[in-house]
Fold this sequence. Notes:
Bound molecules: (5S)-5-amino-3-OXO-hexanoic acid, zinc ion
CATH topology: TIM Barrel
Number of domains: 1
CATH superfamily: Aldolase class I
Number of strands: 16
Shape: globular
Order of helices and strands: EEHEEEHEHEEHEHEHEHEHEEEHEH
Largest sheet: 8 strands, parallel, barrel
Strand content: 15-25%
Strand order of the largest sheet: 2-3-6-7-10-11-12-13
CATH architecture: Alpha-Beta Barrel
Radius of gyration: 18 Å
Number of helices: 10
Amino acid sequence: MPPERIINCAVTGAIHVPSQTPYLPITPAQIAADAIAAADAGAATVHLHARHPDTGQPSSDPELFADFCGRIAAQSEVVIGITTGGGLGMTPEQRLAAVQRLQPELASLNMGSINFGLFPMKDRIASYQHEWEAEYLEMTRDFVFRNTFRDCDRMLRLLRDVGTKPELECYDIGHLYNTAHFVDQGLLEPPFWFQFIMGVLGGIGPSVENLLHFKTTADRLFGSDYVWSVLAAGKHEMSLGTVGAVLGGAVRVGLEDNLYLSKGVLARSNADLVAKMQRILNELGLQAATPAQARQLLRLKGRSQTRF
Ligand code: KMH
Ligand code: ZN
């Protein structure tokens, strides 16, 4: 097995709220600077959401995405991936708008509808900076993250039309079977690029056994036609990411999924988290893949084919 592992950095996301940490990048300039620093620290790919520059609220405004994608592209070779998960409560149209406009090399694609419970985080926030934050977390008690077969079908067709590789976000084993359905429909080309996600309340829990369940199921369904990455939300980010790397997978780290560098110590940047994973890989005799190696492994269309 080659020693290179893709480190994918999820820079800001739509899960955490600004009151949880002063280090969450919010404005396009902050998101771009953090993404570039993460790439310099060893990330081959970055996964990007936008936030309203004044309030930090998740935003689907393509202008914001265009702003930070342009800044990153001007300074870094890193592979840029754009979310189609967006922020909680956005419509499928809103979630697709930035990908439609910018036609990135990668975009996330969430492979099934799930409950998405962020409300337990409320117990750990002493005071709020912005009005929207408490309600955003609270409403997830009754929120379904919608990704119906029709939604996925539509998104897959759009991504195929613009040559963007889907990063298949799977929060449970059933999502692998949903993916197999779309492979049968001819809507996906190998290598299929999977994110095995553990630890979102509503999806499968974080454990080595569940990671192996993902992998053995994907082996059965997709043979050697797939490439995979581990996303373990919260405190399991580094440990299960390491297990994944040892097994041959890529690793996702970043402030979208985890705010802490170690117990009780906030990560001061995304680069902090990338650098830690890079150190772990090196200790294990592995190394971080370059953006060029990631492009080759995932068979991406290349930066020149994007609109930024
Ligand atoms: N927030 C992660 C658990 C997306 O952006 O499409 C999954 C994610 C989804 O990154
Ligand atoms: Zn995301």
